[in-house]
Amino acid sequence: MRYWLAAGLALLAGFGPGTGPAAAQSSTLDAVKARGQLQCGVNTGLAGFSAPGEGGIWKGLDVDICRGVSAAIFKSADKVKYVPLTAKERFTALQSGEIDVLSRNTTWTMSRDTSAGLNFAGINYYDGQGFMVKKSLDVVSAKELSGASICVQTGTTTELNLADYFRSNKIEYNPVVFEKLPEVLAAYNSGRCDAFTTDVSQLYSIRLTLGNPKEHIVLPEIISKEPLGPAVRQGDPQWANIVRWVLFAMINAEELEITQGNVEEMKNSKNPEVRRLLGVEGEFGAGIGLDNDWAYQIIKLVGNYGESFDRNVGAGSALGIARGQNALWKNGGLQYAPPIR
Amino acid sequence: MTGASKPQFARRRPRSLSDYFYDPKTRGVVLQILVALLLVYFISEIVSNTIRNLEEQGIASGFGFLDRTAGFDISQSLIPYANTMTYARAFLVGLLNTLLVAVLGIILATLIGFVIGVARLSKNWLIATLAGVYIETLRNIPPLLMLFAVYFGVLKNLPAPRKSLELPFSSFLNVRGLYVPAPQWEAGMSVVLAAIAAAILGIVFLNWRARRIRIQTGALKPVVLPSLLLLIGLPSAAFLATGMPVTFDVPELGRFNLKGGMVVLPEFIALVAGLTLYTAAFIAEIVRSGILSVPKGQSEAAAALGLKESHAMRLVIIPQALRVIIPPLTNQYLNLTKNSSLAVAIGYPDLVSVFAGTVLNQTNQAVEVILITMGVYLTISLLTSVLMNWFNARMALVER
Ligand SMILES: N[C@@H](CCC(=O)N[C@@H](CS)C(=O)NCC(=O)O)C(=O)O
């Protein structure tokens, strides 16, 4: 009896109002610093964006965001724990606090940005959804896919765009929906589906992993806008600012032609914009709770956006994707970062 | 001790509060109320805490999403469904798909399980060994692997649509599934359906009468043949009389695939086959142990009474074995139903795939969606248990 009472009281005390995890929410930056490590949600393996390379070292355009944040906070790009997530798991992982940043080819949509408890920090890749088919099918346009079976992964924007596209074009199709990418690809390979659909960049990346890449073509239609970028939990504006400005710093660095190679000399530059970015002038680090050399560390340890693009998905990589929409605004692309001032 | 020797004193003394405290009955009731209150408080705290946390994290909550447009397509649906319908409708589609697999799987697994269970006890060495190998192999493979093996094994071996295997009755088999002519019912079909219903009623009546006569007079009336005649004859007669009110929509080759007809998806075939074969192995073991649990004296006694071996099996052994078989069989039925949620791995649109998968991800309302899904599985499991308990109770009455 006495034990019962004691246990009951203990429960009551534990469940008093305002003791939920969210109520006791502290700053993500402090938590990351105390842990000594950034927890970054990435793809399970998508060459060019995030994939473990030799020796288990993660590489990719999305991984470079994690490395950038790590560099800005810890002055080391390697204090990151990568958490590979499927499309379905990723938001829960972020909401529950398992990861601090989600940098995993994730499309910025209104519902995700508002009612899913996420905050998007920016766009590190402008993408769009496309279709891949076997060359042997002799299909040259998505409009010819009437009656086709189409493989798609659940938990993606892809699934919805697909329905929209065929509905508005009044074409019939059969979706085959899997939870994990390997099964989607196995089904596509076995001929269960005529086409596989996802963001075009991912189609290119995945095509390289299929037996003979030349047997598959990506159809010309782009059926949606897929602005991909890193996301954080809602409710911590400082943390959102850090991730956002890490990305902006990388883009600004490219615009100001500061590279991993010349960042040291650039510290002596006369250009006030360069001086502010590298923390030689001004106190911009303080605004996001970091040291003044935060951006200098990112560029030194990770490089600017152009360098990251090049070695991961661009001309310097196996993917060889052209800059296109992802070129800087002054080169006719969409990448544009607000100034540091 | 003293109370026992002078009971009248103890009874007359007016009861004080401490008496209630030491009275086990009162104490029990009070404790139960306290625990119940605590539980209610506990649950309401969890609920309000969850809602508050969701709000603070900026995550939508509530069940309003069920009325919103789903916007996605589903490859198999037993009821009319289009992507312009609601999430609630998509939920229903997923639920029915789950039930379809569960019911079909349970029926098939039971049939196969019984056959293999009996085969395992066969006096024929080869049959018994084959059954044993089947059981030992399948029981030791994780069900998910089993599904992958069946699904991708089946896909690998089926031809592309343009090289479909032609089967009888204008049916085709290819990597997209089994295409069969779709029956299109016309007006007179209701008469045929009514005839089927009448035939079933007739069979029930025949059985009931035969049983009564047997109990009253001991005479055996034939039931099987008249029943079959009724079941086939009556609907056929109605079918012919109404001028064969059915046409068939036959599948034909289109650009990518066959058009028209009805398709049984390979995902569905693989899921049912995988779950059935897997669960049948367990059921076979249950059947075997059930039969072995009946003492040998029972079959000897049956033989002494002059019962044929088949009669002894049907009238003496099986009814007693069933009492041992049914409880663990219920477990297997529940397992099969729950294992059907592995469908999502092989692309079959069951409840978990459609609702706890796609709907959850499009609405981001994980808490609500998972609650509903858990509720559904709980309900299905409880209903199965209730049904099987009822069946068990009926079987137990056979005991003398
Ligand atoms: N950008 C889309 C799709 C992103 C996505 O998850 N793509 C899939 C198909 S390529 C993927 O990366 N899957 C890998 C995995 O889940 O492991 C979204 O945010 O919903």
Structure description:
The complex is a heterodimer of chains A (341) and B (400). Chain A is of the alpha/beta class and 341 residues long. In chain A, 35% of the residues lie in helices and 16% in strands. Chain A folds into two domains: 25-126 and 228-331, D-Maltodextrin-Binding Protein, domain 2, CATH 3.40.190; 129-224, D-Maltodextrin-Binding Protein, domain 2 (3-Layer(aba) Sandwich). A five-stranded mixed beta sheet of chain A has the order 10-9-11-8-12, with helices on both faces. In chain A, β9 (148-153), α6 and β10 (173-178) form a beta-alpha-beta unit. Mean pLDDT of chain A is 91; it is low at 1-24. Chain B has 14 helices and eight strands. Chain B has a domain at 56-156 and 266-400: Orthogonal Bundle (MetI-like fold). Chain B starts with a helix and ends with a helix. Helix content of chain B is 68%, strand content 6%. Chains A and B meet through α1, α4, α5, β9 and α6 of A and α4, α7 and α13 of B. Glutathione binds next to α6, β11 and β13 of chain A.
